[in-house]
Structures are given as structure tokens and as C-alpha cells.
Structure prediction request, 476 residues.
Amino acid sequence: MHPLLSLSASQLAQAIQQGTFSPSTVVDAHIARIEAVNPALNAVVQQRFARARQEAREADERVRQGASLGPLHGVPITIKEAFDVAGTPATCGLLSAKVHLPQQDAVAVARLKAAGAIVLGKTNTPDNCWDQETISYLFGRTNNPWDLARSPGGSTGGEAAILAAGGSPLGLGSDIAGSIRLPAAWCGIVGLRPTSGLINEVGFWPPSVGRLADLNAVGPMARRVEDVALAFAILSEQPAQPLDSASLAGQTFGFWLDDGLIPSSGAVQGGVNAAVRALTDSGMRAHQAAPDHRRLAVAGWLARINEDEREAICRGFGGGELWSPLRELQNNLTDQPRIATGALRYWLSSHYGSLLMNRLGVDGQIWRHQLRAEFTELVGEDGFAICPVFPTTAPRHGWSVIFPLTISYQTWVNLAGLPALVVPVGRSGNGMPVGVQLVGAPGTEWTLLKAGYAIQQALMPVAMNCLHLGESGFAA
Prediction:
């Protein structure tokens, strides 16, 4: 394995600018890694290798000419398949969008490319991004690089898997119900879900119609906190801030160990406690308390979806055409499926769960306000809390049949529209990564990144940050 594969995106950018590695060398090494690991993972489903090599040669020339270089000049990246990349199919795993070939980049993709990044390819996502496992009708199932029998999570599971396996140092995902955070935790990488609506979503599928925009967010993923911070500054068009945890000394943060209903495992609780100790050792103060309205937050999440949002989801599955979830269930039962089973199950649950919540008079807007108020009372206007993303480490494929019991661990964050950062804190007894989420008040992304960096520095030796990339085709 090429030694540069263990470098972070920030280190690669610096090495390219200093002339230590050429963009072509860096791109070729990552393409070779993808070709080695992807048969086992099925993470990269749209390759862009020829064009990436051409762009790398152009980037080589700019370095030779001494031209001004962007902060990601020559750095290879991968993109969730739900985003438009000009000249590359954008299907979101949907049969209905199989022939969609965008002619321009999504805004988020364009910003990364303008900073000098080179897109290697696009990564698997469930149909319409509507599952917490990564299995799509068009591309099949993605596996967890730490254990191929286990799920990488979803819907940004393909991105998390290839990042963890060293095929890419930086990626782009989205999170409407845990879709960045769950894969990041299960694959042992870092993922940032910014405040809802902060980063432009034009060119992303499915479109965030109405209140869906309050639930969704676009954000970066990588193996290191500093890389996510660099990408966040580019994507949000904000000045980068130094990741100096000393500025957080004396600040109080909250923490809790479960969702108030489903207990978490010993490994997950140990991960939260380890992160808490890392921050208290750096001079912060911990307070164990949790917002009550995080319990059963999926009910509030569903109640936020009204008629317009349900129709938008239905049109999303049809690639713009109005498809019926009951018709698709009939298609699946009669061996004429057009949607993967897991995505269909989530669609049926969200569609009819939303109808039920509306009929019962559950007010998602009130739930959102109450949850935000409780969280703000707990952490203040610029504070944060540490808590689990899921009650266990990555389960085996097929786990999502029980998702109604576990989804509130993630969806309370989406319901409140809050920013959240997942950082890995170690591994469990079965060798799987353990990650925790840091959730902040709206607009506190840089506070989360500073705290996450402090946790990384305390808990993650260099070998763990690189996930001990194995030679067998996936992370060892």
C-alpha cells in the first residue's frame, strides 16, 4: 500500500503545494486503492478515473508553473451519488433516474472543485437516500470495511466505507435522519452534519421541499477532524478557525448515554465517557443531563412531514414522477421491484407514519420548538453535548427492520435542525469502531470542531486515525 494513503487531506494538500507529491501521484495511488478494495466493499459505484487523471495532470502543470493553488489543490475526493457531478450519472440509486446525466455540478461539489479538489467517483446510497443501510436497486449493497458481514449504515454508507478503507481522504454526504452520522460512527471516521440549511443543496437529490429542508443538511466526511474543518470552511464559505481547544477551557457541556428509552451497550457508553474525560482533562466541565423531548423524537420528525413533503418524497422515488408507495409495495410483492426493499420499507414507514402523526394531532413544529428550548437551556446559546449516535456499534446487514426502536438516537438532531459532529473514540471488543456525536446549538460548528479535535488528539493515535488500513482489500 502506498504510504501517502495514510495521510489526511490537509497533509496531502500541503505535500502537493510543497512539491513532495504530485497531484498525479496522489490521484493514481487512491485510484489503485479503490480498485483494490471496492470489489469487497461495493462503495464507489460511479467511476471518474480517466477524467480525474486528466485533471491531475492539469493540476501538475499549475504546480510546475508556480500558479496560485487552492486549499485542496490536487487532493482527490469522492462524492455521494445523490449529488450532481457534471458529466457523471446522478441516479441516487433509482431506476427512475438511471439515465440522468447532469451538465453542471451541484453547488457543494462546485465549491470543493473550485478549491482544487479532484473527484474520483461517486459512492453508493440507498434509493432516494431513504434507508439507514446502503443498498440500492441499481448498485446493490455496500459492506462495512471493518467487517464485510456488517452494515456501514446509511444513507451515506458508500462514502463512509471508502473513506475508512483509504480509497479517498475526503467526501461529501447528507443527513436527513442520521445519514452522515450513523455511517461515520460505524465506519470509524469523522462526519459533520451542519445546521440545517447552512450549506447550499442545489444539485442534490431528493430536493428538500418545504419542511424537509429543516430536517436535511449537507456536510463533509473524512478520517480526521482537521479535514472536515477545512472542507466545512470551503462549503460554508466561512473563514477557517484554528482548532484550538484552549479557547473552550472552563466551558460546560452536557452529556448522556442513551435516547431515554433504549439502553446503549457498554462499548457505546464507554465511548461517551472516554470523550467526556478527554474534554474535562482539557479544562472543560461536564454536566450529565438530557432534553426530555429527544425521547421518541421520530414521532416529532414524522409529524414535521405534511402533505407537500410526502408528495415530494413520492416524486423523489419516481425521479420527478409521482409514484405511490403502495404501488411499489405491490411491485415488490409481484417480483417487479423498482426500489430496493429497505428503502421501500423506510418510505412506507415515513409516509404512513407521517399520516398517522398528523391524524393524531401531533404537532412537529411544537415538538421542534420544545426540543430546541430544552437543549438551549441545557447547553446555552453556544454550547454542546456529547451523546451516542446509536445504541451499539455496527450491526450485521439486515438490522434496519428494527429501525423504529433506534432511530430517535439520530432524528432528534434533525428535528431540531442542529449541527452535530461524529468522532471515533476507539474500538469495541469485537473490533468495530465506536463513535460519539457532539451536538451543538445552531451555528456552533466551529465549537464542535474544536472539541472534536481535542477528543481526537486525546484518544486517537495516528495508527487509529488511519484505521490501520489492511492489504486484504478492506480495513484490517
User: Anything to note?
Assistant: The chain has two domains: 3-295+367-465, 297-361.
